[in-house]
Amino acid sequence: MYTYDELKNFVDHCGRCPLARTRNRAVMGRGNLRSPVLFIAEGAGRNEDRDGIPFTGQSGQVFDRLLREIGMTREDVYITNIVKCHPPGNRDPKPEEQEACIPYLKYETLLLRPKMIVCLGRVAAQRIIRPDFRITREHGSFLLRKGVWLTAVYHPSAILRDDTKYPETVVDFRAIKKRLM
Ligand code: URA
Known about the structure:
By secondary structure, the chain is α/β, with parallel strands linked by helices. It is built from nine helices and six strands, in the order ααββααβαβααββαα. Strands 1-3-2-4-6-5 form a six-stranded mixed β-sheet, sandwiched between helices. It is globular. Uracil binds next to strand 2.
């Protein structure tokens, strides 16, 4: 077993896919290593690429607001991405980039041993839950896999584009909180 710091060091120096050549900084997940809940988004954004920290931009503010709705902060949770580097132009990470990066996520999951995994958005839900997962229809539904609850909610950036998604996502976050208690 590697330690968390060793894993972070691998991620920081990773060259497993071409994103390594265009990134400024790899973005390791962050948060409470003892959190019962692991949030997984798709890939680092532009601000994250600059700062090396997940969800530091505008979507991060939406995420923080959702956490506040259920009385939580970043210190209570752990958040990471499928792909640790920024896909140029904010495009979806390619399947081969996801494949190259997924061992890091598997290892993060192994170290955290969460009670629940929450996918943020379609890309993460389709990689983690089911390839044909439909976020509009299935967000907020729960599935138990190998003793771990899996669910998905809208990606915070989708809420930024369409704020009518916010109230539904609050409902999903409340259900997450309830299941964690
Ligand atoms: N969007 C993501 O999917 N991940 C981040 O870390 C930031 C924005």
